[in-house]
Write a structure and sequence with these properties.
Shape: globular
Largest sheet: 4 strands, mixed
Order of helices and strands: EHEHEEHHHHHH
Oligomer: single chain
Strand order of the largest sheet: 2-1-3-4
Distance between the termini: 25 Å
Structural class: mainly alpha
Number of strands: 4
Length: 204
């Protein structure tokens, strides 16, 4: 199986970390949607990262859909989705918040690439507010966790996606997010990033 995309994308990285947590063998190909557009288009004409190529040669795109497929390849004890309906509901809410944080981070990064005269300050303030709202809600979830991770001692998909999102936002928007404002998230990130699955999918 092949994972195509750069690890500084939170969507690629959440799949890479999850694959290692599942214990599934794969090849990571760090192909950029920017620098390597033509090469990427030969793998997936849509040129969307992550792209995941199965052993059968099927190219899947969108990290959530890829992870949904991978959940079906592993035994129950290796899955990263809680089984109990109430836990599944909470997990989905947390994942949604973390994905929203990713989305708003990407929007702010793209806005910063515009010439100053083409930036819309009101829009930037709105997106920044949405980003902070997502992280304040995630801070509350993490602060209330009774064990090392959100659902116990082992990180599940909501943990992985939250930790990956926080690292990405801090990498891309260090001047906007002060860890002192999100102490539980900052400590949670340190615990997650120390795990072998995260170290193996690290980026600079």
């Amino acid at each position: 199986m092949r994972l195509i995309g750069m690890l500084d994308s939170p969507y690629v990285r959440r799949v890479a970390v999850s694959l290692r947590a599942y214990g599934l063998p794969f090849i990571h190909e760090p192909v950029s949607v920017f620098r390597d557009f033509d090469a990427f288009s030969q793998i997936n004409p849509v040129v969307k990262a992550p792209t995941f190529v199965t052993d059968e040669g099927v190219a899947l795109l969108d990290s959530t859909l890829i992870l949904d497929y991978l959940e079906r390849l592993v035994p129950a004890e290796r899955r990263l989705t809680p089984e109990r309906p109430e836990h599944f509901l909470r997990a989905q809410r947390i994942i949604g918040l973390a994905l929203a944080a990713n989305e708003k981070t990407v929007q702010l990064v793209y806005e910063s690439l515009r010439p100053p005269e083409k930036r819309h300050d009101a829009w930037i303030a709105r997106v920044d507010g949405q980003l902070r709202a997502a992280y304040h809600l995630l801070e509350k979830e993490v602060a209330e966790a009774k064990e090392s991770f959100l659902f116990g001692a082992r990180p599940l998909q909501p943990d992985i996606t939250t930790a990956v999102a926080w690292r990405f936002s801090r990498f891309a928007l260090a001047d906007r997010l002060d860890p002192a404002d999100y102490p539980a998230l900052a400590n949670f990130s340190l615990r997650a990033e120390a795990l072998p699955e995260f170290i193996a999918a690290d980026f600079d």
